[in-house]
Amino acid sequence: MTRIYFRKSLAERFWSNVVKRGDDECWAYRPNTKGYGRYANFSIEKGKNVLSHRFAYLLAYGVDPGAKQVCHTCDNPRCCNPRHLFLGTTQENTADRDAKGRMARGSRQANAKLTEEDVVRIRELRSQGVSHGRIAKMFHVSVGTIKDIDHRRTWHHL
């Protein structure tokens, strides 16, 4: 007797890579450890991998998101729990991000060399007439950085 093996369906292969927890908890897509999961074993369009949360939305709701973004209520990019996913425009997703305070600003940015206190001090020094060059040397940054702070092109949220 010959044993016949059948390939798993696309949906079965996808969900087998998702760690499902409780209905209201995040379900993590396993193959990736950071950022958005990429489901590389298939493509809706030839040669284009699909982000795992977009494919989860497609499987759960039977709707191709198309140009819309699949947004997360949980703010966890690896989450594939359909209960945490909703469709939105870029503007709606940006507004959601801003409302939740998720945008890294100031010293929360990974490459920030200055703190909020430094920026306040830099502006105080400028108001006292200290030159851009002298302040730049004090804080070990470029003159352009000091000018951008002074003219509020950067750190304008302070």
Give the tally of structural domains: 2
Residue stretches low in confidence (pLDDT < 50, at least 5 long) are none
Overall pLDDT: 84
Q: What's the number of helices?
A: 6
Overall, the morphology is: elongated
Distance between the termini: 76 Å
By oligomeric state, this entry counts as: single chain
Strand order of the largest sheet: 1-2
List the helices and strands in order: HEEEEHEEHHHH
Count of strand segments:
6
Helical percentage: 25-40%
Largest sheet, strands/sense/barrel: 2 strands, antiparallel
What value does the Rg take, in angstroms?
24 Å
Structural class: alpha+beta
Strand fraction: 5-15%
Describe the structure.
The protein has 158 residues and is α+β, with helices and mostly antiparallel strands. It folds into two domains: 10-99, no CATH class; 106-150, no CATH class. It has six helices and six strands; from the N terminus they run H-E-E-E-E-H-E-E-H-H-H-H. It has helices at residues 10-15, 52-61, 90-99, 116-127, 132-139, 143-150; strands spanning 18-19, 28-29, 38-39, 50-51, 69-72, 85-88. Strands 1-2 form a two-stranded antiparallel sheet. A hairpin with an 8-residue loop joins strand 1 (18-19) and strand 2. Helix 5 (132-139) crosses helix 6 (143-150). The protein starts with 9 loop residues before the first helix and ends in an 8-residue tail after the last helix.
Quick structural summary:
Helix 5 (132-139) packs across helix 6.
Describe the secondary-structure layout:
Blueprint: H1 10-15, E1 18-19, E2 28-29, E3 38-39, E4 50-51, H2 52-61, E5 69-72, E6 85-88, H3 90-99, H4 116-127, H5 132-139, H6 143-150
Antiparallel strand pairs: 1-2, 3-4, 5-6
Helix pairs in contact: 5-6
